[in-house]
Write a structure and sequence with these properties.
Number of helices of chain B: 5
Largest sheet of chain B: 5 strands, parallel
Largest sheet of chain A: 5 strands, parallel
Number of strands of chain A: 8
CATH superfamily of chain B: Cobalamin-binding domain
Number of domains of chain B: 1
Distance between the termini of chain A: 46 Å
Order of helices and strands of chain A: HHEHEHHEHEHHEHHHEHHEHEHHHHHHHH
Shape of chain A: globular
Oligomer: heterodimer
Amino acid sequence: MKSVADPAGTRKQRWEREVVEPTLRKSPERKGPFTTISGRPIERLYTAEDLAGLDDTNHPGEFPYVRGIHPTGYRGKLWTMRQFAGFGTPEETNQRYQDLIAAGGTGLSVAFDLPTLMGRDPDHELCLGEVGKCGVSIMSLADMERLFEGISLAEITTSMTINSPAPMIFAMYLVVAEQQGADWKTISGTIQNDILKEFIAQKEYIFPPRPSMRLITDIFAFCAKEVPKWNTISVSGYHIREAGSTSLQELAFTLRDGLEYVQYGVDAGLDVDDFVPRMSFFFNSHSDFFEEIAKYRAARKLWAEAMKNRFGAKNPRSWALRFHTQTAGVSLTAQQPYNNVVRTALQALAAVLGGTNSLHTNSLDEALALPTKETATIALRTQQIIAHESGVTNVVDPLGGSYFIEKLTQDMIDGTLKYWDTIDGMGGMVEAIERGYPQKEVAEASYQFQQAVERKEKVIVGVNDFIQADEKPIEILYIDDTASGVQLKRLAELKQTRDNARVQQTLAALKDVAKGRGNTMVPLLDCVRAYATVGEMCDALREVWGEYEEVPVI
Amino acid sequence: MSQKIRVVIAKPGLDGHDRGAKVIARALRDAGMEVIYTGLRQTPEMIVSAALQEDADVIGLSILSGAHMHICPRIMALLTEKGLDDVQVVIGGIIPDVDVPKLNAMGIRGIFIPGTPMQHIIDYIAANARARV
């Protein structure tokens, strides 16, 4: 680096003075502000000077994996194209899965409805109008049997987006696998199981933070012994971003959540290298192209270093951060919805250039409804075009070495470490959440962004600029209330036909374990086998642990 | 002297996606209105009772889950039952076009889909809230 004392300044300063300034006098720049979508100021040019002192020696597949966890990138294996789906009754969703498998899909991704996600049976008063609407309704083992009818759990991997009731739903999956004769030792899949981001952003929590954390470490311990190939958690930034955070906040809070889970696992007596290799991450891909790419690169390095240095992990599989990405639902517009195909394609490309291991692309109609079969197909085709036509998969980390990308990556790392210091200073993420810290940060960022949109500092095509008055509505998927009727009737029948004494016994045993220190997965499997409902199992734990209620932060 | 418009912002049902509700609550407050945010998971009964206790002029509902055609009729019926017919109900969220005439027929005219400018919502509420004496 040039000495600051050099009277001519650095090469870049000379360029600014001798080349840029005369140009600006003749033709000024656009008004700006030149910032990322997260509000980060961006310089006009980045040069080697911005990278002074940065280490560029590591290659893909080498610690700390900035350039990727696989030495061959996508030349070895493309990312998994995993599209999230679920609606109505288990039979309807089963049909959609059968279609996906027939079309060559090898992975399923289950979307549950809100009653299931909140651990409520459909006859609860808050479930009015919600059964089968945003996903599939699963009340008991009987529904799980219907959901996977004719699908071999030994051959398929299944991702399940479930958090507070993750142990109950996972137990149901294991019992269906058992019924099919599939070996728990070899089946694979993922449960989201990330409660901290629920407190921060998505708000689908049931129990208070500490018992919620225990359910998660119980799953870590259970799987390490019984279901060793299962991905026990998908630590998620997606929802934090959707709630309005900046890119940096998404990164910093998500990875800090990850550290919190590792710490709780260690505190519960687990060995880091026994459970961390089964942890994975889930990030958003928003519209600011380079900022997102930098975020993924920074994530890998931060995680690898934290696992090695903070937790003393020795297994390289504990260091290597694997992640799924979903394009930003929040960026989709109800206005001129076809433009969403372009937004999604750019966001998907950013995820791929950032080295995502798996990807979901949103459909163009998702600001209006759940996707139709046609729009879901275009979303999948978007990924296939990137994978097979664009050429970006031929080389590993094609943007590595770009002054701008490398500088942004470093800025993301520095910013994250600063947030971690603050959170560590509060005693950890659970404590930070209890005092509403990440919630406040996100609410503030979300409001600032909305203000910038209102002032038109940030243009959203078709929304605050380039508006079209004569838009024709598009055809959308409309989900009626049939599923609700079917499920309510089934619930009543189930309660008449099952052995209710056995249900009560297993629920009582669950409560006993919850009051003590045993692993909750064991009694939960018995509850599931007795056909206890999701609502009943959650209610049993509500009785022991109470329910979480947040103090809303505006 | 004109009194501040009082708005109850509520999240009915099970959905926890509260970015919109919180941003609009703050925008209305910054525009000089008195805003009460109920928090999450409110039943229609809880929302109407909050409106009654808070002497609200406006109820703003945020619903993204598709449950609006169940929740809105119940809230409108309860308002009538409690003699709160003059409370203006507005809704924001993911509302399919086909439901708009049905919501209008119930008396809900302020319907704001994603991308609506905040100023538009503020102006609508200011123009349509019941007059305060």
